[in-house]
Write a structure and sequence with these properties.
It is built from 15 helices and 9 strands. By secondary structure, it is an alpha/beta fold. β1 and β2 form a beta hairpin.
């Protein structure tokens, strides 16, 4: 009888019972999920660190445990203090559009990081590649390589992804008042770095490496003794094997021709500033004046630095061979180096020295505040701050201090954030989706 009455009571309140059961089940599921995200063991767990920007969110895989040694720890990329959804919704300071022509192994990743940080703070609309991180390199740049303007934007404010330059096509993308900037480096060091970094990518270098396996000489020595025997100019990726800076600037890089002088003059008219890697801090002061920046906005650490074990010592003979093989790059560098010193003279030598001294003081303070270790091996770095590794060179990174405030970590992390991670982060922030992969044929 009692059972019959209870059954009747439950039947009359069956809806309530079902709701209670559903709520209880949901709470158990949420509780279990929370336990899975925050395990009580001390084991290393790989987790997705969500980055929210208004309606945009992305995930970066990072380790949740601290690193050993140096007092460093695994940082997390947090949103800015006052995140905004889109450029058009924020009144920005007067900053002209900027196109930075990033070239191979001249130090461009360091400049790119400065511009990434500046663009992120100013909610700039970036001109990103339609596929991955580069504008279909080593093809010459075309406007169609650029992803579409995001909703709400009327123009691109900043372009700084890797390309092979075509000035006419680039002008189709960027506004009329764009400031054009690039960075050159001494051809000897550029070539040595390109060879080390791209040994397994550039066909001519790969051939030299195979030949070196049968001798006691380095692959670089073998290549320099007879570069013509390895180099086929018809192979697109061999553009980096000779006069790589000229190649990236869109010039004909295999030898002097009648149009080269005119092309060089055209580049001179195009660029508002050609920075010089050997005078990097002086170059930054000129960039500061050009873009009306503050010294703190020029803070940097050198990115994509190779391990000392991967740097070949160059004899005087090897240097001479590199200059001879890269004679057009020597001409290009010397031409713009003269223009650089003309700009510094107009800026004022005393004024430049004074501001370089101030900049270096700022850099010393920021690096001391942010970094626990420099030149850190990639195996000691988490996914978020580990630089992309070449097959033929070890690229070192940085470890942050473990006692940073949230605001300090936001600033310091972006200072050391490698190119690919920062590129992905900004792309997702702008479009709300991951970058597209290059379609397979």
């Amino acid at each position: 009888m009692i059972v019959h009455r209870c059954s009747g009571h439950l039947w009359r309140h069956r809806v309530t019972v079902l709701l209670v059961a559903l709520v209880t089940t949901l709470l158990l599921i949420l509780w279990a999920a929370q336990l899975l995200q925050h395990p009580r063991t001390g084991r290393t767990v790989m987790a997705a660190d969500r980055i929210n920007y208004g309606k945009h969110a992305t995930a970066l895989t990072v380790s949740s445990t601290a690193h050993r040694g140096g007092g460093g720890h695994m940082p997390k990329l947090r949103p800015p203090r006052n995140p905004v959804v889109h450029t058009a919704r924020r009144r920005r300071r007067h900053l002209p559009p900027v196109a930075f022509v990033k070239m191979s192994k001249t130090g461009g990743s360091t400049v790119q990081n400065i511009l990434f940080r500046l663009g992120e703070r100013e909610s700039a609309t970036f001109a990103f590649p339609y596929y991955t991180y580069q504008f279909s390199y080593p093809q010459r740049f075309r406007a169609e390589f650029v992803d579409d303007l995001p909703a709400g934007s009327t123009q691109y404010d900043m372009l700084c992804s890797h390309m092979r330059l075509d000035v006419g096509q680039l002008r189709q993308v960027m506004p009329l008042n764009t400031v054009y900037v690039t960075l050159l480096r001494d051809p000897v060091h550029t070539f040595a770095s390109v060879f080390s970094y791209y040994t397994s990518v550039v066909p001519a270098f790969k051939e030299a490496q195979r030949s070196a396996a049968f001798s006691k000489k380095s692959a670089l020595q073998v290549f320099l003794e007879a570069p013509e025997s390895f180099w086929d100019p018809a192979e697109p990726w061999n553009g980096l094997a000779r006069n790589s800076m000229s190649f990236d600037m869109g010039l004909k890089n295999w030898g002097w021709n009648a149009s080269w002088a005119d092309d060089l003059a055209h580049l001179d008219q195009t660029f508002h500033l050609v920075m010089v890697a050997e005078h990097f801090d002086e170059s930054l002061i000129l960039l500061k004046d050009l873009l009306r920046l503050e010294l703190e906005e020029l803070a940097y650490v050198r990115l994509n630095i190779r391990s000392a074990d991967d740097i070949v010592s160059l004899s005087d003979e090897m240097k001479a061979r590199i200059r001879s093989w890269n004679s057009l790059d020597v001409l290009l560098y010397d031409f713009f180096l003269r223009g650089f010193w003309e700009k510094t003279e107009r800026y004022g030598a005393d004024r430049l020295r004074r501001e370089v001294t101030q900049l270096r003081a700022v850099l010393k303070s920021i690096r001391h505040r942010c970094l626990s270790r420099e030149a850190v091996l990639p195996v000691e770095l988490g996914d978020l701050i580990r630089p992309w590794q070449s097959d033929s060179a070890t690229i070192l990174g940085y470890e942050l201090r473990g006692n940073l405030t949230d605001l300090e970590q936001e600033t310091c992390l972006r200072l050391v954030l490698p190119e690919l991670q920062y590129h992905s982060h900004l792309y997702f922030q702008q479009y709300g989706r991951d970058m597209r992969s290059v379609p397979k044929d």
